[in-house]
Design brief:
Layout lengths: L4 E10 L12 E10 L2 E7 L8 E4 L4 E4 L1 E3 L11 H8 L9 H10 L2 H17 L2 E7 L6 H11 L5 E7 L8 H16 L5 E6 L6 H13 L3 E6 L7 H7 L4 E4 L5 H9 L3 E4 L1 H7 L6 H7 L3 E3 L13 H11 L4 H15 L16 E4 L6 H4 L6 E6 L2 E2 L1
Helix pairs in contact: 3-4, 4-5, 5-6, 11-12
């Protein structure tokens, strides 16, 4: 679509800019938005909206920024439905199934991997995710990690090198960390914006995680950390110390972990789909929010522990299971995710921001949690273009 677009007759507009409307979400009623060249050009009352080349009538629907999913693992082959069934029958989640996906991913061709990413990216987009981060981590060899990131880069600029996901079977941990920090990092850096590490028992300890993160930073990559999913550990404090953009999972936190997150600029990215899929305790979002930490929500879409691409589902889980208000959960799924990616052009609707906008088949954003599981996203505009 060329030229400008007027989205008008919006019943409730979420801008996420308090200067533009009521409360932290910057709510406006009976609103309109003008989009030009993929950016928001004007926001105001529908009755005073300027003319545009094309008009999209929202017919009283709620409009909100596109979701920002800052944690997803989409480059893989196969699934682990049997593992999920076993967990639902009482087996504990340990993370060991990652190696099953590694074997399937290594055996898959480029076209198979690319088709799977396209399928999942399409699912997410139809449910309103307009910005998504995609990690590697199911190759765990120099060639397969570089291949994973090369394919991921075809779908997003927010790509993350996760060679330090687990230690491959039969490898010495310290030798593998040296490879991740050396040859593998060199092969992956051209396709990656971020580096990540699974700092957790059974994966990488604090010293190994520090080595990976510092090597990635020296190569020019931003930092992200899988931290404190299975138990308390050094991951969160390491993330804050090194200035990582996000510490992800944050399920088991000490008082010092919470204080560190509240006192720094590292975002606590919560992944309730993982707790849902592993029958594990949910993170205490209320504790983090009340302490003043910045919280994001993301799907953690992966074939083992959170096989969902739905940000609306995660919003509903956050409200029901993590004691977030609907407004807090929506903010975390939009602005929070943007901050976890160090972005200020997405997750908001204000003049100059990217025109990623959703229309809901509902009069208010509250329906995202009020009507869980219902496909409420009726229209998605990506860079101002309806999909």
């Amino acid at each position: 679509m060329s030229g400008s677009t007027l989205v008008t007759n919006i019943g409730e507009l979420v801008t996420n800019d308090p200067s533009l409307g009521d409360g932290p979400l910057g709510l406006r009623r009976h609103a309109a938005v003008v989009i030009d060249n993929g950016r928001v050009a004007w926001i105001g009352d529908a009755r005073t909206a300027p003319a545009a080349d094309t008009v999209l009538d929202a017919d009283g629907r709620a409009a909100l920024p596109g979701f920002v999913d800052s944690h997803a693992h989409l480059v893989f082959a196969g699934d682990r439905a049997a593992e999920f069934g076993a967990r639902m029958a009482g087996e504990a989640y340990t993370g060991g199934g990652i190696r099953t996906t590694v074997a399937a991913t290594r055996a898959a061709g480029d076209d198979e991997l690319r088709a799977n990413v396209a399928r999942l990216r399409g699912e997410a987009l139809r449910q309103g995710t307009t910005t998504i981060e995609i990690k590697s981590g199911y190759g765990l060899s120099v060639a397969d990690e570089a291949r994973s990131l090369r394919i991921a880069r075809e779908f997003t600029d927010e790509t993350t090198f996760l060679g330090a996901h687990v230690v491959p079977a039969g490898r010495d941990p310290d030798d593998y960390v040296a490879e991740v920090c050396g040859e593998m990092l060199g092969a992956c850096t051209p396709y990656a914006k971020w580096v990540d590490v699974f700092c957790e028992r059974g994966a990488f300890d604090g010293e190994q995680s520090r080595a990976v993160l510092e090597a990635g930073r020296a190569a020019g990559l931003g930092l992200r950390v899988h931290a404190n999913q299975l138990d308390e550990g050094p991951g969160v404090r390491l993330a804050v110390e090194l200035g990582a953009a996000s510490a992800d999972h944050c399920t088991h936190l000490s008082d010092s972990d919470v204080a560190a997150l509240a006192g720094g600029d590292t975002v606590a990215t919560l992944l309730p789909g993982a707790e849902f899929s592993t029958r594990s305790p949910y993170p205490d979002a209320r504790r983090l929010l009340d302490a003043g930490a910045t919280v994001a929500l993301a799907t953690d879409c992966n074939p083992g522990s959170s096989y969902t691409s739905s940000m609306p589902f995660c919003v509903a889980l956050a409200v029901r299971e993590m004691r977030m208000t609907p407004a807090e959960a929506l903010w975390a799924a939009t602005v929070g995710g943007a901050r976890a990616l160090r972005r200020d052009d997405v997750g908001v609707l204000r003049v100059g921001a990217r025109a990623d906008l959703l229309l809901l088949d509902a009069p208010s954003y509250l329906h995202l949690a009020y009507r869980p599981g219902v496909p409420l996203v009726s229209t998605v505009l990506l860079n101002g273009v309806p999909l």
